[in-house]
Design a protein that fits this description.
- By secondary structure, the protein is an alpha/beta fold.
- The protein contains eleven helices and nine strands.
- The protein has helices at residues 30-45, 67-71, 77-97, 113-120, 147-155, 157-166, 172-178, 190-202, 206-218, 224-238, 242-252; strands at 6-11, 14-19, 51-56, 102-106, 109-111, 123-127, 131-133, 170-171, 183-185.
- The chain has a six-stranded mixed sheet, with helices on both faces. The chain has a three-stranded mixed sheet with strand order 5-7-8.
- Helix 9 (206-218) packs antiparallel against helix 10.
- The model has no long low-confidence stretch (mean pLDDT 96).
Amino acid sequence: MKYTTLLFDVKNHVAHITLNRPEALNAINLEWARDLMYAILQCDEDSAVRAVVISGAGNHFCAGGDLKAFTSQGENLPFHIKEVTTYLHAAISRMTRMDAPVIAAVNGYAVGAGMSLALACDIVLAARSARFSVAYTRVGLTPDGSMSYFLPRAVGLKRALELTLTNRMLTAEEAFALGIVSQVVPDEELLAQANQLAMQLASGPSKSFGEAKRLMQTGWNETLETQMEYESQTIARITRTPDTQEGIAAFVEKRTPKYKGE
């Protein structure tokens, strides 16, 4: 499939999605949102994809919504926003529920919906140059792109409200301390470390990863007993998969497992 606002390739079972509007700091317009949705669907449907890395071309990850494009909509702006968020939200929903772990490799700005996208990824590697800001209310907007779901869960409700109302800019180290970022790395090592981690995950038990991701997401909204029942059903179900059987056998036989993503 051809994309106009991102680059997409798969190598060694790792899909690389590069947001590619560097002249606009990779800001989100309608084509961007649509491209991301189709790229994530492609990852979800391709059994060869066992890990995903999302990064930004140029010096920034994503500066949020393309406000210049928004202003050109005039009275059609509410309709346009609904269309953009329909694609963006479909991408994020599918991304969080697919088996393949998703790594955000963040450099420069990750603000507004760019920060939302990073938060929705399973693991966030940030270059030391990375900067994060909720940003929405600075221009009179409200959060989208899953921000209001993932940010309170990452930092707690009071801190999420403070970040949303003040829009203060966080350094990579501050974002790490708050739990927004998984690891801070030197700028020149960002993509290499993200790819190394992705290849490690791509060699793992993909079905197990996917089930674990989904359990973690449902766990926020269930009672203890309901969630433990989901855990019981899931761990029993996963034992039917070849990779789980291989993992257990390898442990007993004291050898390295050979997972096939099955």
